[in-house]
TrEMBL record:
Domain UDP-glucose/GDP-mannose dehydrogenase C-terminal: 267-374
Name of the protein in its database record: UDP-glucose 6-dehydrogenase
This enzyme's EC code(s): 1.1.1.22
Any GO MF annotation of the entry: NAD binding
Primary enzyme class: oxidoreductase
Species per Swiss-Prot/TrEMBL record: Daphnia pulex
Function summary: Involved in the biosynthesis of glycosaminoglycans; hyaluronan, chondroitin sulfate, and heparan sulfate.
């Protein structure tokens, strides 16, 4: 799709900011906002763009922040642009807006084309109007564009990610309780999710959330609350639960092996933080890998796409032979004393367990995503 637009000239890329913005009616700032040392969002890239705009802008326009930024950032962007303009003695009408993105890694185009909602934050009606026109083709239902003030739009993005992370940490805590009470958490998810007020989506228990967004945004919101003098008790619990959750698979293995790690071989299925990406940022697999390698265990890990990134990170363990990577789920099961599912890629959903049982030295599965029927595994001869 992009190729067609490139060859028609409708889309072009440019490294020169002045050229890129020359005739732009709307300018989007979509650079990253990584975690700073204290957990707050590092705005250096956003503000650098604002400074560059202040140096280059020659015409009236709407500047829109797409990046996930703390409340008040768009106002700072406006200030930085205006400072640059006044240094050049130019008077321009530059409006700022906030239009946070809600795209998921791996389904970004689909999420963009069919958004649940588009949030437009601006303190001037003209900004709302312009963005409403821009998004009109993507909104089957025009009520999906939610117009609000700048600050509310900026905050909404953090609140959305923090709420989703809260749902996950909540169900993960329920899953621990369920395991202890011999209850299937999947039954509970369906039972509570059938209440429309709760919903079945995005409350799958697992081995913790990762990625470049939830961990970073929860941390940034905690930092923001601290700065405002508000105790972020819920957010702290969400983060703590998630950190604990990422250690549970290792704890379960330790219990299973009674702490005796010598000559153990563990197979891992799935390394990326979620299916459909090779992204390892804050992935639960890293916590498990680090702990197993430290315990001296030999690890055979499989992922359809993330092995290159893992190989770079664990080059030493690979050259010493302690870590072997493969894209074949069956080859890593060979000779293993335990198989751990960490990321629920499609190819791991319905494997040939009879074949796997034959390949493993000790047939036992630790299901970090609750996708297998434990009774079925028991019937097939896997240890419980
Ligand atoms: C997330 C949000 O879902 C997007 O709406 C948002 O735009 C994006 O962050 C962002 O801020 O840019 P993403 O990080 O791509 O998107 O990944 P998700 O699909 O949300 O998954 C995040 C983590 O939660 C994964 O590790 C996944 O395994 C875990 N998860 C998700 C669960 O453990 N249980 C669930 O029910 C859902």
């Amino acid at each position: 799709m992009l190729r067609t637009h490139l060859s028609s000239g409708q889309l072009s890329f440019n490294q020169c900011l002045g050229e890129g913005i020359k005739h732009a009616e709307i300018i989007f700032i979509a650079v990253g906002t990584p975690s700073g040392e204290d957990g707050s969002a590092d705005l250096c890239h956003v503000l650098a763009v604002a400074d560059a705009l202040g140096e280059k802008l020659e015409h009236h326009c709407l500047v829109v922040t797409k990046s996930t930024v703390p409340v008040g950032t768009a106002e700072r962007v406006a200030q930085r642009i205006n400072n640059g303009l006044s240094r050049r003695s130019i008077r321009l009408n530059v409006t700022v807006a906030s239009n946070p993105e809600f795209l998921k890694e791996g389904s970004a185009i689909d999420d963009f084309m069919r958004p649940d909602r588009v949030i437009v934050g601006c303190d001037e009606p003209a900004g709302h109007e312009l963005l409403r026109r821009l998004y009109a083709p993507f909104l089957r239902n025009h009520e999906r564009l939610l117009a609000m003030g700048l600050r509310a739009a900026e905050f909404s993005k953090y609140a959305a990610n923090a709420f989703l992370a809260t749902k996950i940490s909540f169900i993960n805590e329920m899953a621990s309780l369920c395991a202890s009470l011999d209850v299937d958490v999947e039954d509970v998810r369906r039972a509570i999710g059938s209440d429309k007020r709760i919903g079945t989506h995005f409350i799958y228990a697992g081995c913790g959330y990762g990625g470049s967004c939830f961990p970073k945004d929860v941390r940034a919101l905690i930092r923001c609350a601290e700065q405002e003098g508000i105790e972020p008790g819920i957010l702290r619990a969400v983060e703590a639960r998630n950190a604990l959750q990422k250690t549970l698979l290792f704890q379960a293995l330790r219990e299973h092996f009674s702490g005796y790690w010598q000559n153990r071989v563990v197979a891992i299925w799935g390394l990326s933080f979620k299916p459909g990406t090779d992204d390892l940022r804050e992935a639960p697999s890293l916590v498990l890998l680090d702990a197993l390698l430290l315990a001296g265990v030999t690890v055979q890990a499989c992922d359809p796409v993330a092995t290159t990134a893992v190989a770079q990170r664990y080059s030493q363990a690979i050259s010493s032979g302690q870590l072997r990577l493969s894209t074949s789920p069956y080859s890593v099961a060979e000779g293993a004393d335990a198989l751990v599912l960490v990321t629920e890629w499609k190819q791991f959903r319905q494997p040939d367990f009879v074949r796997i049982r034959g390949l493993m030295r000790m047939p036992v599965v630790f299901d970090g995503r609750n996708i297998y029927e434990s009774t079925q595994l028991a019937e097939l001869g896997f240890l419980q």
